[in-house]
Amino acid sequence: IEFYAPWCGHCKKLAPEYARAAQLLEESQSKIILAKLDATTETHSAASNNLQGYPTLKFFVKGKEYSEYMGERTANAMIQWLKGQLELAALSDSAKSTTDESASASSSADAGSMLATVTSVDEIKRILDLGVTLIVFSGPKNGLLWNIYKEATAKFGPETGLGFGVTFFENVYKAVGVSGKGEVVLFKQSLDKKKVLEAPYDAAKLHDFILNNQHEVVIHITSQNAPMLFGTDPKPLIILFRGIKTIDDSAEKQLYKAAETLSGRIRFAVANYHEAVANRLADLVGITEDELPKIRILEPEEVEFSKYALSKDISSTNIIEFFEEYKKGKLKKHYKSEDIPIANVDPVKVVVGKTFQQMVLDSTKDVLIEFYAPWCGHCKALEATYESVAKRLKKSTDLRIAKIDATENEVEGIKLTGYPTIFFYPSNKKDQPIEYKGDRTERSLVNFIKDHATTKIIDAEIDSSMLKTEEL
User: Fold this and answer.
1) Is 124 known to be catalytic?
2) SS3 152
3) Is residue 183 within 8 Å of 232, Cβ to Cβ?
4) From the candidates 5, 11, 78, 262, which is the catalytic residue?
């Protein structure tokens, strides 16, 4: 289901691809149904699904959220992902009482019904080809270890990108090199990349085994693991944003060297700018293609990221030093910003992240500033009125009327809940901005400025009316 807003530009761009995906699924007689919900009118549903932006695409199985789509917004990419998710859901629901241990398996079928029963190595390969890390319990469905395994798997939802299964087949035991006495085998998207937890173990040891081994030393960010990295299991990580040039290959080698030294102290990841989910992440962080390669430390938070930028050349030594400074709390947070405009002569002044301190927190001027989004319909509707206010009051030399694109510029301490948001910063109280909540009319905005101004306001409309009176 797509949660959208009618005014959202990204939603409008997605619409034809989403409609095409729905048509292709219908023509192939797929069980998957695509739907959409206007989150601006169905506010209760939107709130209950913890939306962080538009559009948000979530996959539901049997009435429950199964996973969130964060991949490329094309019909083919969405269909491929959906088919993989459906197959995973089917595997997770397929535990049956089979073979000579069917009696003991039947006694726990309900509790273990969300675990895939793996019958062959080919089936393991098929699951791994879906891009997941697979954890398999090898042994009978009874006893203490089986109960520990079931309880541990319940703590990892499908959005983690992990798949869980059980096998009690001799051919699988031999193929993966276990005895079938309760070992847990973790496959990292390949049969060759595996870790084995030998019996005996307790719940804590099993949980730590999964957490500590589910990723490579350096994680390649994908649509499968992104929801876990930034949602269900958010932890600080050092990310290399890279392109396709030789310099990017060199930067990745340096990242791997640093990761080997710092393994276990912080997560490491690579985001390939030309892959959809990494491209979206780069956009959120404020990194453009011509800046690559770049390294950031990201701290995933509820609504946004705290970001720290490596300002030195990318080398393993500098990355390690960068991390140590971060752990000591010596780094300043990084806020994204557009370049400073060369010309800024219009009545409404353009502010970017780099100039906010200089242009808004200037103690010699009162400042009215609009935080807007280019795709926001309400912002577009306000534009002409806002410019008229600036022209009307342009002779007020100690008043600055400004705007900032809040999608491309970040300001420390500013948390927005919608667009447009307008603040008035009095010259003598820059730490106490006043939010404008009135009508979006020229008259209301001008009156608001006059009510809160600490400097002289010259209103061109009043001057004009006085001149006409004198002429009469």
Assistant:
1) no
2) helix
3) no
4) 11
Write the pLDDT tens digit of every residue in 235-264: 889 999 999 899 999 999 999 999 988 877
Q: Are the C-beta atoms of 220 and 272 separated by less than 8 Å?
A: yes
376 is catalytic: yes
The phi, psi pair for 288, rounded to 5°, reads: -105, 165
Q: Name which of 212, 231, 211 is nearest 221 in CA terms.
A: 231
In 3D, which of 202, 198, 214, 203 has the Cα closest to residue 163?
A: 214
pLDDT digits (tens, 9 = 90+) for 153-189: 877 766 566 788 888 888 889 888 899 889 999 987 6
- Single-letter amino acid code for the residue at 390: A
- Catalytic choice (4, 5, 8, 352): 8
d(C-alpha 164, C-alpha 331), whole Å: 40
Handedness of CA 439, 440, 446, 452 (dihedral sign): positive
CB 375 within 8 A of CB 10: yes
Average pLDDT, the chain: 83
63 is catalytic: no
The answer to whether 222 is a known catalytic residue is no
Give the Cβ contact number of residue 195 at 10 Å.
15
Is the pTM of the predicted complex or chain greater than 0.85? Answer: no
- Residue 89 in this model has a pLDDT that exceeds 70: no
Residue 297: phi and psi, rounded to 5, are: -100, 125
Read off the pLDDT of residues 24-72 as tens digits, 9 standing for 90 and up: 998 888 889 999 999 888 877 877 777 767 888 888 888 887 777 877 7
Please give the structure tokens belonging to residue 156.
């990892």
206 or 159: which leads in pLDDT? 206
Query: Percent of the chain, pLDDT > 70?
Result: 87
Does 318 or 304 have the greater pLDDT score? 318
Pick the catalytic residue from 379, 393, 446, 449. Answer: 379
Q: Are 29 and 36 in contact (CB under 8 A)?
A: no
The Cα angle at residue 65 between residues 133 and 80, in degrees rounded to 5: 55
Instruction: Round to whole Å and give the CA distance between 424 and 158.
Output: 46
Percent helix, strand and coil across the chain, each to the nearest 5: 40, 20, 40
Whether the CA torsion 197, 201, 205, 206 is positive or negative: it is: positive
The tokens of 126 are what?
């098929």
E-strand stretches of 208-293: 218-220, 237-242, 267-272
- DSSP conformation letters of 224-235: TTHHIIIIIS--
Which 3-state string (H, E, C) describes 112-138?
A: CCCCEECCCHHHHHHHHCCCCEEEEEE
Dig out the tokens for 152 from the structure: 């541990």
Catalytic site residue from 105, 376, 382, 404 = 376
Cβ count near 251 (within 10 Å): 23
